[in-house]
Design goal:
The structure holds 4 protein chains of 4 kinds. By secondary structure, chain C is an all-alpha fold. Chain C has 4 helices and no strands. Chain D is 78% helix and 0% strand. The radius of gyration of chain D is 22 Å and the shape is globular. Chain D starts with a helix and ends in a 9-residue tail after the last helix. The C terminus of chain D is likely disordered. The chains are: A mainly alpha, B mainly alpha, C mainly alpha, D mainly alpha. The interface between C and D is large, with 72 and 85 residues.
């Protein structure tokens, strides 16, 4: 975990902080979602408790905590209670592998602004987030209700179907960057947009060197697949009041329900963060490189530590700005697009997105092969 | 050497254990703080249903499509995983002059993949009704 | 020989012993359990045990071939699981039975 | 106790414990879930052996796909916990247990006895090699996925035939399982 006990402690605190950040973001996102949907649908939304209804979050938390803890008689208790605990794990583990800023250098210590640097970043994230299917199946089976079971089967079939399109769209990205490591991807996306083909170099002064300009199709497929992975509208077929009630969490209430929510929002955050890393330059700022920012910081102060802190903070802010933007798109889409039907969902995953992602892979390989 | 392999994995295990303890703690906290059961009728303790006696999951008919989807997912997932090492080394192969060979071998693999996919689509194994 | 160096020096032997213990657990599962699906799972356990020793040898001899073998083994194990489960399910759907003893009656 | 040693013992305990749980649970759902846990533990062991990519594949393929299929099948067809989970017959059961015990004794004993011969030599030689390779790795530490690239190069030069053959195998199995799954019994489980 580190070279001495100080570094180990800091790294552990960092991991806990990342988790707490995710947990804290959930009520804020719920508030944004409710206010945002109200804005889109021309309603008021929560506006009674506190300024702009912000204290609604606190009221909700208290309400969740004081709800009666309830399990149906027929439920299989160990699975029923383990499922919400497990819901926290995959998304958090994957999110902790996301680099959120340039490393912080204090004296001889170098702290990465990410939980841990798995050198096969993407493969690790895909592997860990594929464990989310167990949570769904455990909850569905443990509840002993037919609605839960049907919802769980639907949700897990949907999650694994879209994992194919997700995994295949990433192949194009890996071909482009030639690495699994997320930090190296971000570094490769700095500077102005530059195409190198047949010995010529075409460079643009206005556009940053972001992945989206090389892989637009992969970006669309990836983004759509993350919606399905996080079980959100327009792909929230795991729920449906008219058919299977609330899907695999029909029997859950109170705090256990909230833990499923944390998992769902965690997947949403993971999708946004990966979208930024792959296609929108990660923590990079358009038109400016890390060296530029460091130079600018050196003009303000002399201390090396302060320069590093400023650089890290500026890039962290840049990451957060993009992050919030994508989270808002997640919410926006939810209240704009209608739902799919289940057969349409499967058709879209298997017969549309999978072939398109395959085509994108072949095309990318062909272009890389031809121009070099 | 110890650092190289131990560092990320230690973090992962620490976080997993932390989350498991934290989640369990939350469950127990909610149990301790949460309201007490006042209504203890059989209907309340039953699973959710709209006014009729609850139906156990054992009487539920489930389409085998779900399981077919899972099988096909495994097989296609592995084929996709095989593309990852190819994608990461493709540029190296091109610069070392073996690009044509590796490109062609992956295209053969992809042709088999596409054949399989279209066979599944044609055989209506992916049809949901 | 459990000595202090056995506990603190992790060598190839440790991984091989772990692998063999896991293999034996898997084999006991195959021999002792009666549920076909559990038997298939025990087979996966045995394959995993072999994978551990492949990777351990690959690291301690600095040869990447072991990892590629594991890659292939995983592929074939997944294929085997798919076919095995498809067979078990086909039989279960028809006869409502997963007990391995019952499978004896399927001949001819 | 260095972190690596602690990690090894922790993971070994986890793997053996959950492996035993697969064997001892009479309810197949719990067996399948503990097997999934074993798979995750094995993936972690792969990371301690520096096989990062294979660890990821283990997570994606075994823990994320194969075990999900097992759990799904058990839940879909509601395969209950058996009244008599283990094979009947005290004598045959004892014989099997003895066979398992003998084999396990043989393997473990063989390894421990063989510490000075092949395996021991290998691990001793390897220690020097590892040190060498590690010092080489330190120099090119910038390329974080050098090991994965090495794997890719070997896969697409030396083992290219196996790779293509597996592609054919997977397609054949995809076709076969679909045919098998809809052979008879209608489209519904019950």
């Amino acid at each position: 975990m580190g070279h001495d006990s100080f570094e180990i402690t800091i790294n552990c605190i960092k991991l806990v902080l990342i988790f707490l950040m995710m947990v804290q973001a959930v009520p804020i996102l719920v508030w944004v979602e409710r206010r945002g949907s109200a804005f889109i649908q021309n309603r008021f939304g929560p506006n009674r408790v506190g300024p702009l209804g912000l204290l609604q979050l606190l009221a909700d938390a208290v309400k969740f905590l004081t709800k009666e803890d309830f399990a149906p008689d027929r439920a299989i208790r160990p699975l029923f209670y383990a499922a919400p605990v497990f819901a926290l794990i995959p998304a958090t583990l994957a999110f902790a592998a996301i680099p959120m800023s340039v490393p912080l250098e204090i004296g001889e210590y170098v702290f990465k602004i990410q939980g841990y640097d798995m050198n096969v970043g993407i493969v690790f994230i895909l592997g860990v987030s594929s464990l989310a299917a167990y949570t769904i199946l455990m909850a569905g089976w443990g509840s002993a209700s037919k609605f839960s079971l049907l919802g769980a089967l639907r949700a897990s079939a949907q999650v694994i179907s879209y994992e194919l399109a997700l995994g295949l769209s990433i192949v194009g990205v890996i071909l482009l960057f030639g690495t699994f490591n997320l930090t190296e991807m971000v570094i490769a996306q700095q500077g102005p947009l530059t195409f190198r083909a047949f010995g010529h170099t075409i460079s643009s002064q206005f556009l940053p060197n972001w992945g989206i300009f090389y892989q637009p199709l992969a970006a669309v497929i990836f983004f759509a697949a993350t919606f399905a992975e996080s079980n959100r509208l327009p792909f929230d077929l795991a729920e449906g009041e008219a058919e299977i009630v609330a899907g695999f969490h029909t029997e859950y209430g109170g705090f256990k329900m909230l833990m499923f929510f944390i998992g769902e929002y965690g997947h949403m955050m993971l999708g946004s963060a990966l979208m930024i890393i792959f296609f929108f330059g990660g923590y990079g700022i358009p038109g400016v490189t890390v060296a530029d920012v460091r130079q600018w910081a050196a003009g303000i102060t002399d201390s090396a530590t302060q320069i590093s802190v400023i650089t890290t903070l500026v890039h962290f802010l840049s990451f957060m700005l993009k992050f919030v933007l994508f989270l808002w798109i997640f919410i926006w889409v939810r209240w704009t697009l209608p739902r799919f039907r289940y057969d349409q969902l499967m058709d879209l995953g298997w017969k549309t997105m999978l072939p398109w992602a395959l085509g994108n892979t072949i095309l990318t390989a062909l272009v890389i092969y031809l121009i070099s | 050497m110890a650092e190289a392999s131990g560092m990320p994995l230690g973090g992962v295990i620490f976080l997993t254990v932390f989350l498991a303890i934290f989640g369990t703690f939350l469950i127990f906290l909610a149990r301790a703080i949460g309201g007490r059961r006042t209504n203890n009728s059989a209907a309340k303790r039953d699973i959710y249903e709209c006014g009729i006696p609850g139906q156990d999951k054992r009487e539920t008919k489930v389409s085998v499509k779900f399981y077919l989807t899972a099988i096909l997912f495994i097989l296609f997932d592995i084929e996709i995983i095989f593309m990852y090492p190819w994608a990461i080394t493709f540029r190296d192969f091109i610069s070392s002059g073996q690009g044509t060979f590796v490109f062609a071998s992956m295209m053969i693999f992809l042709a088999i993949f596409i054949f399989g996919l279209f066979w599944e689509i044609k055989s209506k194994a992916l049809e949901w009704d | 020989m459990p000595s202090s160096s056995f506990l603190t020096d992790i060598s190839l032997n440790h991984y091989l012993i772990l692998s063999s213990v896991l293999f034996v657990i898997g084999m006991a599962g195959v021999l002792l359990r009666r549920n076909v699906i559990v038997i298939l799972m025990s087979l996966e356990l045995m394959l995993n045990a072999v994978n551990i020793s492949f990777i351990a040898f690959s690291k301690f001899t600095q040869n990447v071939d072991g990892q590629i073998m594991v890659f292939f083994v995983m592929t074939i194990a997944a294929a085997e699981a798919a076919v095995g489960l498809a067979l078990a399910v086909a039989i279960f759907k028809r006869f409502k039975e997963v007990n391995i003893k019952f499978f004896e009656h399927l001949r001819g | 106790m260095t972190p690596d040693v602690f990690l090894f013992w922790f993971l070994a305990l986890l793997i053996v414990g959950s492996g035993l749980a697969v064997l001892l649970f009479t309810n197949p759902v719990y067996s399948a879930l503990s097997l999934a846990m074993t798979m995750v533990g094995v993936a972690a062991i792969f990371i301690t052996l520096n096989a990062y990519f294979i660890a990821g594949v283990q997570l994606i393929v075994y823990a994320g796909a194969v075990m999900v299929l097992f759990v799904m099948v058990i839940m879909l067809f509601d395969i209950k916990s058996e009244v008599q989970a283990f094979t009947s017959g005290k004598i045959s059961g004892a014989m099997k247990l003895i066979a398992v015990g003998l084999l396990s004794g043989l393997i473990v004993g063989g390894i421990i006895m063989g510490q000075k011969s092949f395996v021991g030599e290998l691990s001793k030689d390897a220690a020097a090699q590892v040190a060498e390779a590690n010092s080489a790795k330190m120099k090119r530490a910038a390329g974080a996925d050098a090991a994965t690239k090495e794997l890719g190069v070997a896969l697409f030069t030396k083992h290219i035939f196996g790779f293509e053959a597996l592609g054919v195998l997977l397609t054949a199995i995809a076709v076969g399982t679909v045919a098998l799954a809809r052979s008879r019994g209608g489209t519904h489980a019950k």
